[in-house]
Amino acid sequence: MRKPHKLLLHSLLRSRNTRPYTSPASLTTSAAANPVPATLAVLSDLDLLDAGELTPTPRVYHGFITACAQSKNLEDARRVHAHLASSPFAGDAFLDNSLIHMYCKCGSVLEAQKVFDGMRRKDMVSWTSLIAGYAQNDMPEEAIELLPGMLKGRLKPNGFTFASLLKAAGAYSSGSSIGGQIHALAVKCDWHEDVYVGSALLDMYARCGRMDMATAAFDKLDSKNGVSWNALISGFSRKGDGETALKVFAEMQRNGFEATHFTYSSLFNAIAGLGALEQGKWVHAHMIKSGQKLTAFLGNTILDMYAKSGSMVDTKKVFDRVDNKDLVTWNSMLTALAQYGLRQEAVAHFEEMRKSGIYLNQISFLCILTACSHGGLVKEGKRYFDMMKEYNLEPEIDHYVTVVDLLGRAGLLNYALVFIFKMPIEPTAAVWGALLAACRTHKNAKVGQFAADRVFELNPDDSGPPVLLYNIYASTGQWDAAARVRKMMKATGVKKEPACSWVEIENSVHMFVASDDAHPRAEEIYKMWDEISMKIRKEGYVPDMDYVLLHVDDQEREANLQYHSEKIALAFALIQMPEGATIRIMKNIRICGDCHSAFRYISEVYKREIVVRDTNRFHHFSNGSCSCGDYW
C-alpha cells in the first residue's frame, strides 16, 4: 500500500469545512494563505484520490483547481475538472466558480463559459469571474455582453465586477460610450467612490482618449497610488499630449511617488511623439539615477525615443547597451535605420538578424521593405518580399503597400500597376494611395488620376488624395484640371492640412507656419532668412518653382516659396542656438523639394548638422549632402 501524502493531507484538511470565497481575487488569496499542490504533483495526487489514500473533499478539489490556475497548465486543469465531474461534488457552486476562474487563468474562456452555462444557480461570483475572465483575455465585447444577463438575474454588480467591466470598456472599440454607461451604473449602485472602481474609471477614460474625464476621475480619488499616476501619464502619452504627461510626472515626483519602468516607458513614448531630444535625455538621466535597469522593455522605448527625436548616435548606443535583446529591440533598430535612409546599414542589420537565428516576423520584413523603398533598393526589396515565404509568413496589406511604394519611388509606375492587379487580396485605399504619391513625385497625371479615382471609391473621406491630385495637375501646369479638383474639394469640404514646423530650444518648443508673423521675434527671423538666402544663392542655390502650386507670376511664386515653415524654423534656430550645435526640426507633412535643396546648401555654408523629421522619414543634412542621398 502506498504511503499517504501526509503534508498535503494536513494542509488541505485544515479548515476543511470553510469556503472563504467572495470574489475571483479570493481564489488567489486563499491559495496564498493555504499551501496547495504544485502542478507537477496534481496528477499523482489525483492517483491518491483514486487509490483511496486521500479523502476527497471540496477543499481538496479547490486546492487542485487553485494549483492549476496558478500554473496556467490547461491540460492539468482539464484532468482535474474531469475528475471532479465524476465525484460527488460535481455541480457544487463554490467549486464551479473556482473552475471558471481556473479556466480563465489558463486562457480558455470558452471552457469557463461552458462551466458557467451548466451551473444550476449562478451567483455574483459566477458572473464576476466570467466577466473578469473575458476582460483579462482580451475579449472585451463578450465581457460587456454579460452585464444585461446579470442585471436581469436581479444581481447588482460589486466593485470587482465594475473594475472588470471598465477594463473591458477601455479595450472596446466604442468604449467611451459603453464606459460612460457603466460609469453611470456604478454611480447608481454607489460604487463610483470605491478606490478600485475609481482607478478603473481613470484607466478606462484614459484608454478611450477622454483625458478630461480621466483627470476628473483621478482628482476624485481619495487615495492615489503609483498605478493611478501611471494610468494618467500613460493616457496623456497615448493621446499625444507629451507636455502634459511630463507635467503630471513632475507632480507625481513632488507627491513622493517613485517612477517605475511603466512610468518611464510612457514618458519615452510621449517624448518620441514630440521629438523633444533634450527632454528625453533628462528623463533618461532621471531613470539612470533612480536605479532602473536597462531591460529590453525599457530599452526598446528609449531606443524609439532617440530615433524619433533625431539622434541616431544615441539610438545606436542604447541598442548596443541593451542586454538580452528581443525581437522588438532588433525591429526598432531596423525601423530607425530605415527612417534615416541608411539603406546599406539596414540591409546589414537585417542580415545579421537572419544569421543570429532571431525569429523574424512580419514587422521585421515590413521594416526592411521600408528601408529598401526609402533607399531605392528595388532588387533587394523584391528579394526580401519573396523571402517571406521561406519563413512561412503571409504578406499583409502593409507589405503590399510598401512594395508599391518601392516601385513607385523608383519611377516604375507601370510595374507598380501590374503588381497591384496581380495582388492575391483586394487592393485597399492605402495601396492606391502609395501609387498616387509616386505619381506626384514623378508628375504622372494619367496614372495619378486613375489611382485617385480608386482611392475616392474606397475612402471618400480621406483629405490626402484630392490634395495630391491637385498637386500633380498644378506641378504639370494643368491649371484647368487643378481648378476642377479644387472645386471638388470645396464642394466636399476637403481642406488641406496646414503645414507647420517646430524646433526645440532650451526645453521650449517653438512652432511656425508658412509666412508666420506671430512669433515675437518675427522681424529678426525674416531678416535672418534673407541673409541665409543671399549666402546660399552665391553658392549655387536656385529656388525650384515647381514646388509653388499656385497659378501666379514668377515673382510671387518665389516669394511664396521662401517662407515655408521649415525655413522659418531653421532661421530661428540659427539665431538662438550656439555655433556648431545640431539643429533638429520636426514637420507635420513631407518636406518640399526646394526646402530640401536649400537645407543642403545651408548645412555646408553654416557648417551645421541639420536633422529634419517629416511624416515619412528623417533627413540628416551635413556638409552639403543629405542622408537620403536625394532619393526620397
Structure notes:
This protein is mainly α and 632 residues long. Helix content is 65%, strand content 4%.
Topology:
Blueprint: H1 6-13, H2 24-33, H3 39-50, H4 58-71, H5 74-85, H6 93-105, H7 109-117, H8 124-136, H9 140-152, H10 159-171, H11 175-188, H12 195-207, H13 211-220, H14 226-239, H15 242-254, H16 261-274, H17 277-290, H18 296-308, H19 312-321, H20 327-339, H21 343-355, H22 362-375, H23 378-387, H24 397-409, H25 413-421, H26 429-442, H27 445-458, H28 464-475, H29 479-492, E1 500-505, E2 508-513, H30 522-538, H31 554-562, H32 565-576, E3 583-587, H33 593-605, E4 610-613, E5 618-622, E6 625-626
Parallel strand pairs: 3-4
Antiparallel strand pairs: 1-2, 1-3, 4-5, 5-6
Helix pairs in contact: 3-5, 4-5, 4-6, 6-7, 6-8, 7-8, 8-9, 8-10, 9-10, 10-11, 10-12, 11-12, 12-13, 12-14, 13-14, 14-15, 14-16, 15-16, 16-17, 16-18, 18-19, 18-20, 19-20, 20-21, 20-22, 21-22, 22-23, 22-24, 23-24, 24-25, 24-26, 25-26, 26-27, 26-28, 27-28, 28-29, 30-32, 30-33
CA(first)-CA(last) distance? 80 Å
Q: With helices defined by DSSP (H or I, 4 residues minimum), what is the helix count?
A: 33
Shape annotation: elongated
| Mean of pLDDT | 86
Arrangement of strands in the largest sheet: 2-1-3-4-5-6
Structural class: mainly alpha
- Taking pLDDT < 50 over at least 5 consecutive residues as the criterion, the unreliable ranges are 1-38
Q: Biggest sheet, in brief?
A: 6 strands, mixed
Strand content: under 5%
CA radius of gyration is: 31 Å
Q: What fraction, in percent, of the residue positions are helical?
A: 55-70%
